[in-house]
Write a sequence for this structure.
């Protein structure tokens, strides 16, 4: 009985682990977005808006490409 | 400091950066999806990269360098970033009078304008992220996937992966120049016997421009190296003890092959193609001595055996963790994992099978490794 249930238990453990890891990665992106938008100092994920703003103000652009998770 | 810590200080707006940062329009992009590859050309193995641009899309410079997996502070620092910001502002003040000097820094034409146009990524991603809980990470094209998709094009057409694709964005150390990450491009040391030493570089030299391109960071040096020919002659303008100096770098044939690509995320996919999912590490001298293997002999220990899907090909072929590879495709001379990847990805096409001899305990076994 134990031998038959062991692979199932291992499978469930791995699936739960993967789910937890995925949630953590998602949460990292969502938290980053909240922090950036909350801070109000960065244009978030909208390069065109940044270009327009740079053209309007005459400022140069700083574009950060960030792989969060 | 890891990349995440460095990035966190920028997002929180480190007070020392504040005065410089406020002079820029600041944009944060967290997705590869719909990224304009005709403009944003950078080392896709980075998890943090920055561009300094004019509103007309002229590139002033780039920032972001990595040469190993764990220690980001070896290559990027806040001090170096401040120097790059200040340098970009100076270029902006002098623009467009300096436009001709910036020509070499501009992006080159690309085959695919966005990542999701690559055959390996097409149909799997949309142009926007799905911010629903539990979906956002999966909906994102990660930058390293662009590099992988690029290499898969060659493999799919049964072509050799060329050196400039296999060894992208060479760090200056490859030509013997170790640059100080706290400065724009200041020489920290020069390696013995290197192209940099032969050119006359000395510790403390400030590299002002390379091939006429003004430099804001180590990444700008990498941009020049990334596009340099093989072999190449590069002109460098240097400031030494306050005096200007012109130096000439002669890069010999196959100069890129000194690059270590083992740290790169995209190398995981190269291991799938060439090594069936194995990760190999060089044996240390003590282990070599214990096994009576000469200094000149190939000796790569199997550090990891892939378990799933296409990464389990070597496992299915009989390879085991701790095996020691002493011959591969009839090559027996000492080489690194990067060297072996180079050989297999340039000389052997998908579908071929190469003989590999391994030491396992007291046994010597010959296995057959299928390439993908």
């Amino acid at each position: 009985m134990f031998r038959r249930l062991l692979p199932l238990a291992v499978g469930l453990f791995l699936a739960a682990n993967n789910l937890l890891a995925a949630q953590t990665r998602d949460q990292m992106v969502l938290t980053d977005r909240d922090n950036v938008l909350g801070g109000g100092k960065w244009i978030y994920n909208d390069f065109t808006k940044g270009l327009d703003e740079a053209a309007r103000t005459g400022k140069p652009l700083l574009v950060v490409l960030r792989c969060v998770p | 400091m890891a990349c995440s810590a460095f990035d966190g200080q920028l997002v929180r707006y480190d007070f020392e950066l504040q005065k410089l940062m406020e002079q820029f329009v600041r944009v944060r992009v967290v997705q590869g999806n719909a990224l304009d590859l005709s403009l944003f050309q950078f080392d896709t193995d980075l998890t943090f990269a920055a561009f300094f641009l004019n509103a007309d899309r002229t590139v002033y410079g780039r920032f972001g360098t990595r040469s190993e997996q764990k220690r980001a502070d070896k290559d990027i620092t806040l001090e170096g970033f401040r120097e790059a910001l200040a340098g970009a502002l100076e270029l902006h003040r002098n623009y467009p009078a300096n436009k001709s000097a910036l020509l070499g820094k501009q992006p080159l034409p690309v085959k695919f304008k966005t990542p999701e146009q690559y055959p390996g990524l097409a149909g799997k991603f949309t142009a926007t992220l799905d911010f629903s809980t539990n979906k956002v990470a999966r909906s994102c094209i990660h930058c390293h996937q662009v590099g992988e998709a690029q290499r898969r094009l060659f493999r799919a057409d049964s072509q050799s992966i060329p050196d400039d694709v296999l060894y992208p964005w060479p760090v200056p150390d490859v030509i013997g120049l170790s640059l100080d990450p706290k400065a724009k491009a200041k020489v920290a040391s020069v390696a013995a016997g290197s192209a940099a030493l032969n050119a006359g570089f000395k510790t403390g030299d400030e590299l002002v421009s390379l091939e006429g391109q003004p430099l804001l960071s180590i990444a700008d040096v990498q941009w020049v190296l990334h596009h340099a020919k093989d072999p190449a002659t590069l002109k460098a303008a240097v400031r030494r003890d306050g005096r200007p100096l012109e130096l000439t770098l002669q890069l010999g044939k196959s100069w890129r092959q000194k690059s270590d690509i083992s740290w790169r995320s995209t190398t995981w996919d190269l291991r799938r193609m060439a090594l069936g999912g194995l990760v190999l590490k060089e044996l240390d001298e003590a282990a070599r001595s214990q096994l009576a293997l000469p200094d000149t002999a190939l000796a790569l220990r199997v550090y990891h055996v892939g378990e799933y899907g296409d990464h389990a090909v070597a496992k299915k072929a009989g390879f085991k963790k701790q095996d020691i590879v002493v011959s591969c495709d009839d090559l027996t001379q000492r080489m690194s994992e990067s060297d072996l990847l180079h050989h297999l990805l340039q000389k052997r096409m998908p579908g071929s099978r190469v003989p590999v001899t391994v030491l396992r305990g007291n046994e010597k076994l010959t296995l057959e490794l299928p390439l993908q």
Remarks:
- Residues 2-57 of chain A form one domain.
- The mean pLDDT of chain A is 79.
